[in-house]
């Protein structure tokens, strides 16, 4: 589906808009719809997907919804503080044009992550990457002695 932007002729409303308490409302509504539709139309073309990033005291988690992808076609890579997720899908056996390629990179703090213990799990179309924190990066509780 292709979205076509319709430009509403505003010149004929210029005289009445100056006296109306609703002056500018039409152009403001057009601007809101234009921005929303443009961002929705750009999503598939960008080849990106949303990710959730959250952490607890021991790990940082990156969660991405990738329905319809095979485990073999998902790559996870951590290089120079960037976690990159790639997912590709070829055409189906029926010959439908379902080919897709998506990629997303997020910044993670290198000094906080133990790169040798990173793990990833893919279940029910959801990829979860677990980035364990280094021991020295974890918060410590220090008891202060009062004399």
What is the mean pLDDT? 78
Order of neighbouring strands in the sheet with most strands: 1-2-7-6
Q: Assign the structural class, choosing from mainly alpha, mainly beta, alpha/beta, alpha+beta, or little secondary structure.
A: alpha+beta
Report, as a whole number of angstroms, the end-to-end distance. Answer: 75 Å
| Low-confidence segments | none
Number of strands: 7
The CATH first-level class of the largest domain comes to Mainly Beta
Could you give a short account of the major beta sheet? 4 strands, antiparallel
How many individual domains? 2
Secondary-structure element pattern, one letter each = HHEEEEEEE
Helix count, per DSSP? 2
CATH topology group of the largest domain: Immunoglobulin-like
The proportion of strand residues reads 25-35%
Helix content: 10-25%
CATH architectural label of the largest domain: Sandwich
Q: What is the alpha-carbon Rg in Å? A: 24 Å
Shape descriptor reads flat
Keywords:
single chain; 147 residues; alpha+beta; Immunoglobulin-like; 2 domains; 4-stranded antiparallel beta sheet; 3-stranded antiparallel beta sheet; flat
